[in-house]
Amino acid sequence: MRNWFVGAVLTIAGVIHVIPLVGVAGAGSLERLYGVTIVDPNLELLMRHRAILLGMLGAVFLVAALRASWRPAVMVVALVSTASFVLLGWMVAGRNSDVDRVVLVDLVVAALLAGASVVQFWPGRAPSQGRKRSGRVDS
Question: Alpha-carbon distance 7 to 129, whole Å?
Fold first, then answer.
């Protein structure tokens, strides 16, 4: 159960973080994603680079969904990434509805990641160990 839930949450976080990769295509894609106008080439460069970084994070989250040994470190990174964006979003007034949607999605993902972290790190039986019943071990 632990492995399934943690893997599913990392998969959700990974897919959500890969979506902004379409922003690499240019200002038009970024404008559609975030409902902003990008006329400054410096801002376009920064936002396109952000798209690449989010895509790389998403790829790492997806790998961690399949590799349990990656999960502890990756879950910390995922939670910091999503929670920090939510915190920054709350601190900045005047956001548009597209950015509000991103903040809300990250809030939901951060909550899922917090739950998955509890499941992952809660003391108890290790996910790879079987339950002992009547003198036998089930896996």
Answer: 17
| Coil vs helix vs strand at 95 | coil
Helix, strand and coil content of the chain, in percent to the nearest 5, comes to: 75, 5, 20
Pair 30, 75: CB distance under 8 Å: no
Can you tell me which residue has the tokens 């943690």? 6
The pLDDT score that the predictor gives to residue 46 is 97
Residues 1/125, Cβ–Cβ less than 8 Å: no
Instruction: Tell me which DSSP letter residue 21 carries.
Output: G
DSSP tag of 135: T
Where do we find the tokens 């939510």? 86
Rounded CA gap, 87 and 91, in Å? 6
Residues in the chain: 139
Kindly report the pTM of this predicted structure.
0.83
Token pair in block for residue 112: 């899922």
The reported pLDDT for the residue numbered 123 is 75
Enter the DSSP assignment of 126.
-
Task: Tell the residue number behind the tokens 């959700």, with chain if given.
Answer: 12
